[in-house]
Amino acid sequence: MGRIILRQARLDNMKNEFINNISHELRTPLSILRTSNEALLNFGAAEDADTRNRYLGINAGIINEMDTSLERMMGVMLNSDVNRKATFRYVDTEKLVNSIVSRYTLDTSANIATDLENGPAEINTDPYMMTIILNNLVDNAIKYSSPDPRIVIKTTVRRKGWELIVKDNGRGIPAVHLPYIFDKFYRVPSGDLHEVKGYGIGLAYVDELVKKLYGRIDVNSRPGYGTSFHLKFKNHGSH
């Protein structure tokens, strides 16, 4: 009984932090949107085409980011993608990885290197789920690797499956937290609750989707030396 009470108390604390994180993360982009709209409406920014387009571009980027974050959050909370059956088809590793790299190198200062050990190769996977997995892992790597994120995405295709590694040069994760990082709502504590944005659900999401793709995910990390996520997938049909 004592263990059940302690577990429930821990879950309640994580949910409270989850709510605090949502409030903080939504408040910041909404404040930027408000300021941008005020400039367009009240301070003549709309009269100059270049200035107007710049503000509208900022607004569009913020809205897209909020939409993506909320979709990811609700996907985990409602298990919408976890309950969705994987749709396997052959995907080119180079196109898959480069689509992620181009997005983050456009929006951030991250240095993302790729290592396609077999060169461009085909893998049998669900491209929608794999894109979510890669987005979450790269997004985490950038958040925890500032101010100079250096990330490596490596793929290795083998006869009976394939492997994916996402490695960063970030702050690393203390060993005491590693057993829990795939738990829903769990976030590694830091000095500032809001130092790093996020809901504490991304890795739980990744773990569930990896299982849907007949894979497993492991993590190696040391404080001050970065983190490496190693994913192994069996070929669909050989599980």
Write the layout of secondary structure elements.
Layout: H1 2-42, H2 49-77, H3 80-83, E1 89-92, H4 93-107, E2 111-116, E3 122-125, H5 127-143, E4 150-158, E5 161-168, H6 202-212, E6 215-222, E7 226-234
Parallel strand pairs: 2-4
Antiparallel strand pairs: 1-3, 4-5, 5-7, 6-7
Q: Can you walk through the features of this model?
A:
Keywords: Kinase, Phosphoprotein, Transferase, Two-component regulatory system. It catalyses: ATP + protein L-histidine = ADP + protein N-phospho-L-histidine. There is one protein chain. The protein is of the alpha+beta class and 239 residues long. It has two domains: 1-83, Signal transduction histidine kinase, dimerisation/phosphotransfer (DHp) domain (Helix Hairpins); 89-234, 2-Layer Sandwich (Heat Shock Protein 90). It has six helices and seven strands; from the N terminus they run H-H-H-E-H-E-E-H-E-E-H-E-E. The protein has a five-stranded mixed β-sheet with strand order 2-4-5-7-6, covered by helices on one side. The two termini are 38 Å apart.
Succession of helices and strands:
HHHEHEEHEEHEE
Uncertain ranges: 192-199
Helix/strand/pairing category: alpha+beta
Any idea what the radius of gyration is? 20 Å
The CATH C-level class name of the largest domain: Alpha Beta
CATH homologous superfamily (4th level) name of the largest domain: Histidine kinase-like ATPase, C-terminal domain
Total count of domains: 2
Keywords: Kinase, Phosphoprotein, Transferase, Two-component regulatory system
Pfam family, one: HATPase_c
Domain Histidine kinase: 21-237
Catalytic activity: ATP + protein L-histidine = ADP + protein N-phospho-L-histidine
